[in-house]
Design goal:
Shape: globular
Structural class: alpha/beta
Largest sheet: 6 strands, parallel
Distance between the termini: 52 Å
Strand order of the largest sheet: 2-1-3-4-5-6
Strand content: 15-25%
Radius of gyration: 23 Å
Bound molecules: 5'-deoxyadenosine
Length: 467
Amino acid sequence: MPSVFIKTYGCQMNERDSEAVAAQLVAKGYTLAKTEGIADVVLLNTCSVRDLAEQKAMNKMKNLAGTARKDNPNQILGYLGCMAQSRGKELIDKLPDVDLVLGTQKFHRAAEYLDELLSGKREKIVDVEAEAKSEATIREHLLNGSAKTSVSAFVSIMQGCNQYCTFCIVPYTRGEERSRTIDDIVAECRELVARGVREITLLGQIVTSFGKRDIPVIGRAGTDSNGGAHGVTRPTLQISPFVQLLDAVHAIDGLERIRFTSPHPKGYGDDLVEAYARLPKLCESAHIPLQSGSDRLLKLMHRGYTREKFLGIIQKLRAAKPGIGITTDIIVGFPGETEEDFELTLSLCREVQFDNAYIFKYSPRRDTPAADMPDQVPQEIREERNHRLLELVNGIAARKYDAFIGQQVQILVEGPSKKNKARYTGRTRCNRIVLFEGSTRHQGQLMDVNIERTGSFTLYGDPAILE
Ligand code: 5AD
């Protein structure tokens, strides 16, 4: 049977799509090649969010094509995912060695198309059409003995985004928002738990918009943060479809932890904040993309919230769950960003004290409104702001890591560390990586560790077992 090698660029949604494609191919009898050189099929699952990500995948494909021409002329080469979607046939026109271009609504057709290419029935395939119900097709999992993936799994709950932030290509690569049903998602989660999964991360481009068009909001009397029967009754809470989904997944016996990514700040209504306090399996961790601390820029970006609103969300979350880990994404050098705008981003970061922040230099994307906005910021200023902001957020992050020294934290052990097999790796509920001297018996366990020291974005711990 043919062998396949899949390389993934970009976000966790892409990782999940690649896993589903791999699982689909394995179910058809394919093997997973250890290296690209020996594979019959090499697929690059691509990212378009910044130019650099596209360049990387295109350079990789050029190299693959060069080697294949010399050593393995029958090797099938394919692009999957976001760049395949946004560039389509153009990718084959540029590099005729490419055999397959498969868009973001077509992952489930990979096996069928590869069959046709391998058997010589067809020479080239480009399929980037929209397909109804494709959001429900990312469902196969590869829990094939790789312990790491069998403890923690990703589940795709929705696809697409209707927010149309002016910098962002995602609405064009992933399409309109489409959500799976709660029953369908819960069934997949149950099956994963039955196969040994203990932590599930719900995934989508804008998960907080889950089910918006299909599932009605329901009113429910709120309770105090203990959530118990004796709780003080508060005014009715409007429970969004996303929080209804969290409730349904939370009810699965045997599941220990729930996470989700990525949300939009506007999705942090009182129902979601209350869910953090009410649902013990929902980990106290939130990745909330800020993008800018300047209201003027937030408006130009079409983000739909203000600096004050964002600060209000952080305050409410911290009131509900002190110690919640909060991370963010920020863009520097968006068109028209002045020194004053940038300083507002710096001051907001000082105020919030994010546990970690991912900083991106603005990258113009084709067909997005921001690419044609006046006052594009010169590259050297983007670099300089990137540097200044990184220095600030990394300093804050390091101090936050150091504050864990001497504390006891609960981790879910995922498996041996990639770099040092004698070490095991797990995550705290607030999503920090912890390394400790472990063994296979720790795998998949929830355990307490004492944090002894910190490294770069890592905590080092000692199992806290009472002898
Ligand atoms: N340029 C730079 N960064 C971008 N992002 C999205 N689009 C762009 C762009 N055109 C960043 C945002 C988003 C993260 C995934 O990527 O910060 O949250």
